[in-house]
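ARCHIVE CARD
CATEGORY: sequence design from structure
SOURCE FIELD: tokenized fold
FIELD CONTENT:
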């Protein structure tokens, strides 16, 4: 009764508002004398009656259609035929509905109403689909789709693709139906169209259910349930509970199924939905038969019979109602007028009643607004959760850098005693374990967001698998466990995601060794299942304690831990196997498990490799990078020392700017670079940009994620500013995916180091970047033409040098033009101009001006512009002997000898 009361509160105000508009339309219909106007009014009246009284809607629609045909008003006849098709489809009289749709389609084709034709074709497809006749449905959907593709109506395109998926679902072509649903889904998600999203999720779940993919079906039924709960449509709730209960019942999860089936039955009772009650009764009957509760099974059997009969009676009643409507339509006009008078009387009563319900309507509206607000808060919480997982890498990896860095430094000291080295190694092992856990959490976050792509590399698959598997040999020896393995002998070159394979094998082998006692055995086998189709099989067996049978279907659930795993060394987080399962699914493979308590556990994996089975959006191809030796190698350290020794021989150490919001990491980097570099620091991108412009450092080391301004934006500004465009940038980040590295490099970053980083590797990167810039300066200073286009520098640097040279050439004959004048013309401080020119040319401002003048002088002498004195004054020298001295220093000969040599040649 409570539900019925709320239902009335919702419907009565809406009904009264519709009645008010209906009164106005009926009054206009009575007064109207223009036949075309009357047809349009009949059409509107029938549409208003559609939600109030379907019989009246049909009656007025037919009256309007008769008048439109009599006066040959084709547009009106087409629209009313279409509306009558909708009315009859709504009450399930599909044969009558489709007749009216075809009449509408014929008229719209004659009128060349292309949009109207497309809309009606879609409606015809819907009727055929509801009649469970999918082939003509698909035909008319495709015809309609052609038009909406031509006008690029993305919402209509998505709706039609979803409709085609529904027809394919009826045909039982479930994989093609899934493709359609996945194509349509992004458009509805971007527009947040709840009704279509609910249908999409429910139908995807039903497709997976029919394909016997239990986990995926359950996942999408849950999505459908969450989506349905955002709205107030109780039929959605009931249907979703019904489908989920059916899925669980058919997959032997009998006890769980009862809760959902009972909930569907209860909602069906509340809203008096006979179809839901019939289906829920049938499934509850099956449930109680399986549970050997025959009294309850008999009760729901009788309920099923009752509601089945009610549905059949309802269909018969609709046909009788249509027959009665047809009779009324063929009766005299007077009967209609009497009926209309009765309806007007009832409308007046309802208008009076609506005034009494107005306050209740306001209350319901406010409740609805509060619910909308709550939904928005939920959406914001979801977004906050995504940002948390995105930033957790930075927050966790930064302290790990500060832990692993000193640990590696401690291990590199040979004077450590064996006992202390053992302690430090334990610290490193646990820090690496924490890093691995962070990586797993981030991988799960990417999988949930659907943003993880396969990173395919071409190489020898068998060799890569050997490297991963054999890396566990030392662990086996340490734990005194027999480790057996078997690989195919032949080489197999193909495309595969090495990182995903490594994570899958590492998780499974780590678990095998974790749960196998001393003296036990772990077996790993690699098989070629189908070389032609590129399918490989992996088997991992152990002789550990095994998994109880009632736990096997739960081990891939996130955060699930097998009961009895209470020993400290075997307690985990419960995300390793969940991640493994999701990575296997991402690779389009499958994983199965068998286990006997006390005997051991076996995992069987079947994985397709190559890229033929993948869609283009699912993967990216990456070049296989040559692995550098670990930063602990002696040659790396020696290389670093050599470079820094060279730097120390210069007039001063290079100036390095460290931009990092984490104080400890800044201190960590400074501690290992201050013996060979001058260091300045900044806490965020804005401060870093200001200090870079002010000091013009030789190198910038910046974090990627920072407050105020991140590293990417700061790098972009540095590389597009002519004052700082020459400065090499080394970027540090916790984001280690290919997409993140590409984003950083596209902004102009010269190098990219992921956290946690090895400090020796960082030193080498710093020295190499400074050395490269030094070689560039040397090459530039030796270039006799001093033409920027011949030098491998950035566009911003080229523009800067062209501007400087242009100003000098414009002022070439001015004796008073000097470094201060050039600095004023360039609108830069003297120190900024000096460091920029020094970095690019290895020349001071005065040396640069003099070099340009001397090279112009040499050019004039070659062209026989005049004698040496004339050329001297032409290029801005007011002292002939000074010009001759500088000329000989640059070219190795005096001006007069230069003239003779060039004239002789």
């Amino acid at each position: 009764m409570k539900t019925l009361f709320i239902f009335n509160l919702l419907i009565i105000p809406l009904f009264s508002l519709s009645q008010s508009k209906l009164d106005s339309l009926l009054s206009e219909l009575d007064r109207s004398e223009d036949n075309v106007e009357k047809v349009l009014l009949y059409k509107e009246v029938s549409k208003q009656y559609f939600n109030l009284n379907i019989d009246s809607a049909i009656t007025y629609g037919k009256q309007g259609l008769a008048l439109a045909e009599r006066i040959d008003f084709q547009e009106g006849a087409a629209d009313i035929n279409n509306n009558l098709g909708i009315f009859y489809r709504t009450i399930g009289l599909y044969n009558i509905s489709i007749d009216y749709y075809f009449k509408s389609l014929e008229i719209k084709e004659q009128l060349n109403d292309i949009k109207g034709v497309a809309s009606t074709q879609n409606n015809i497809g819907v009727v055929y689909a509801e009649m469970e006749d999918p082939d003509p449905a698909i035909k008319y959907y495709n015809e309609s789709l052609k038009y909406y593709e031509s006008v690029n109506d993305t919402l209509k395109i998505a709706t039609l693709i979803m409709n085609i998926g529904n027809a394919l679902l009826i045909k039982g072509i479930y994989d093609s139906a899934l493709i359609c649903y996945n194509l349509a889904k992004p458009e509805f998600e971007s527009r947040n169209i709840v009704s279509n999203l609910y249908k999409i999720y429910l139908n995807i779940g039903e497709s997976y259910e029919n394909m016997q993919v239990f986990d995926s079906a359950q996942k999408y039924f849950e999505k459908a349930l969450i989506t349905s709960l955002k709205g107030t449509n109780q039929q959605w709730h009931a249907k979703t509970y019904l489908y989920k209960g059916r899925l669980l019942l058919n997959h032997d999860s009998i006890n769980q199924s009862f809760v959902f089936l009972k909930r569907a039955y209860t909602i069906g009772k509340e809203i008096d939905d006979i179809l839901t009650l019939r289906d829920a009764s049938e499934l509850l009957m099956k449930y109680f038969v399986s549970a050997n509760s025959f009294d309850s099974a008999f009760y729901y059997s009788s309920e099923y019979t009752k509601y089945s009969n009610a549905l059949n009676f309802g269909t018969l009643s609709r046909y009788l109602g249509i027959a009665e409507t047809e009779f009324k339509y063929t009766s005299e006009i007077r009967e209609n007028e009497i009926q209309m008078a009765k309806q007007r009387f009832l409308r007046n009563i309802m208008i009076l009643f609506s005034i009494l319900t107005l306050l209740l309507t306001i209350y319901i509206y406010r409740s609805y607004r509060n619910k909308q607000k709550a939904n928005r808060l939920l959406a914001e919480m979801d977004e906050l959760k995504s940002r948390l997982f995105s930033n957790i890498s930075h927050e966790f990896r930064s302290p790990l850098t500060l832990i692993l860095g000193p640990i590696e430094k401690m291990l590199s000291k040979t004077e450590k005693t064996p006992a202390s080295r053992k302690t430090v190694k334990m610290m490193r092992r646990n820090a690496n374990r924490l890093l691995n856990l962070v990586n797993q959490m981030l991988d799960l976050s990417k999988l949930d967001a659907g943003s993880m792509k396969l990173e395919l590399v071409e190489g020898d698959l068998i060799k890569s698998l050997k490297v991963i598997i054999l890396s566990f040999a030392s662990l086996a020896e340490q734990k005194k466990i027999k480790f057996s393995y078997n690989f195919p002998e032949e080489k197999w070159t193909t495309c595969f995601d090495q990182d995903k394979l490594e994570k899958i094998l590492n998780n499974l082998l780590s678990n095998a060794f974790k749960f196998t006692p001393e003296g036990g055995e772990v077996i790993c086998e690699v098989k070629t299942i189908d070389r032609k189709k590129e399918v490989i099989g992996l088997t991992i067996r152990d002789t550990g304690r095994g998994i109880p049978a009632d736990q096997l279907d739960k081990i891939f659930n996130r955060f699930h831990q097998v009961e009895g795993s209470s020993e400290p060394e075997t307690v985990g987080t419960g995300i390793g196997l969940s991640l493994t399962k999701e990575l296997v699914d991402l690779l389009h493979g499958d994983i199965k498990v068998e286990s006997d308590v006390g005997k051991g556990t076996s995992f069987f994996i079947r994985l397709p490799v190559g890229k033929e089975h993948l869609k283009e959006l699912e993967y990216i191809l990456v070049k296989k990078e040559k692995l550098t030796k670990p930063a602990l190698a002696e040659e790396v350290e020696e290389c670093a020392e050599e470079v820094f020794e060279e730097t120390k021989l210069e007039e001063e150490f290079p100036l390095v700017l460290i931009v990092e919001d984490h104080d400890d990491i800044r201190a960590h980097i400074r501690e290992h670079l201050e013996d060979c570099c001058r260091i300045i620091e900044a806490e965020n991108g804005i401060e870093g940009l200001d200090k870079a412009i002010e000091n013009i450092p030789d190198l910038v080391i910046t974090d990627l994620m920072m407050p105020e301004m991140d590293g990417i934006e700061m790098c972009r500004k540095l590389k597009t500013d002519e004052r700082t465009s020459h400065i090499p940038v080394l970027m540090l980040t916790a984001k280690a995916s290919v997409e993140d590295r590409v984003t950083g490099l596209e902004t102009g970053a010269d190098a990219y180091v992921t956290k946690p980083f090895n400090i020796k590797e960082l030193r080498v990167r710093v020295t190499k970047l400074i050395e490269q810039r030094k070689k560039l300066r040397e090459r530039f200073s030796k270039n006799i033409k001093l033409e920027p286009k011949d030098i491998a520098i950035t566009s911003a640097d080229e523009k800067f040098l062209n501007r400087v040279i242009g100003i000098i050439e414009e002022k070439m004959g001015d004796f008073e033009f000097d470094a201060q004048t050039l600095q004023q013309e360039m609108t830069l401080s003297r120190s900024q101009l000096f460091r920029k020119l020094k970095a690019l040319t290895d020349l001071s401002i005065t040396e640069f001006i003099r070099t340009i003048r001397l090279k112009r002088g040499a050019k004039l002498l070659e062209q026989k512009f005049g004698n040496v004195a004339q050329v001297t004054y032409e290029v801005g020298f007011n002292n002939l002997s000074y010009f001759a001295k500088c000329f000989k220093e640059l070219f190795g000969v005096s001006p007069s000898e230069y003239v003779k040599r060039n004239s002789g040649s």
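CARD ANNOTATION: Residues 362 and 448 are 40 Å apart (CA to CA). The domain at 788-904 is CATH 1.10.10.60 (Arc Repressor Mutant, subunit A).
SHELF: design records, drawer C
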